[in-house]
Amino acid sequence: MLNKKDQKIIRQMMRHIRTFPLLDSEIRQFERDLTGMALEAEKRREDFEEILDMTPTEFCDELLCSIGGRKTPGGRRLLKGAGIYYQLTGLIGTALLSLVFLISLFLTIVIPSELGLEGVILLFVAIIGLIFFGAFLLFGNIAERNCGATEKSAQLVNNGKILLVTAVIFDIVVTLYMIFNAGASVGHFNYKLPLLMQVIIFFSCYMPAILYIIGAKRNLPREYAFNNI
Questions:
Q1: Calpha distance 33→35 (Å, rounded)
Q2: Suppose 101 and one of 55, 126, 201, 213 were both cysteines; which one would form an S-S bond, judging by CB atoms 3.0 to 4.6 Å apart?
Q3: Which of 198, 199, 179 has its CA nearest to residue 189?
Q4: Which residue has better confidence, 106 or 12?
């Protein structure tokens, strides 16, 4: 009987293996082989994860490639990278806007004056921002967690499209603000700032969303891509 740690590792490995287009009989054989390896390691009083000499999912990739002739989905690394980026962005943005949210509440409730109106505006901005960054956290986590699950790639493509639309909305809002507010405050419009912002927005908003979509599309099962040509 496997210990709880090895049972957890085997479950993780089998979830990963099931993301490949294998027959049920092949999946059951892999499960028997891996379970046998874990039992042998226990008999020798060795740590099963250590004898793999790599992460469980990497071991499965190597195993499937060498024995089953299966290739790992091409977009897995792109999806994982984009997922980590969106999670980090979501965490930082959520932390900053949570602070703005608390400040706006203070201005709105505690200080009854003209600052109260500013507090309401800040409160609205903070809520909208938290929704956006919450979506970043959610979609980033889904991408990293399911980057090897080819059967979920179609949904990940849709998530990437939502992130791309979000980037477009953010771009439009920032551009309009600079045109009507920043330009009015200095009496003339400086074109260098919008161009610089476009470069920043492209690499920080558009590029991750594009990589997210490309990774998800490359991760699509072959039969799904064939049926949708």
A1: 5
A2: 126
A3: 179
A4: 12
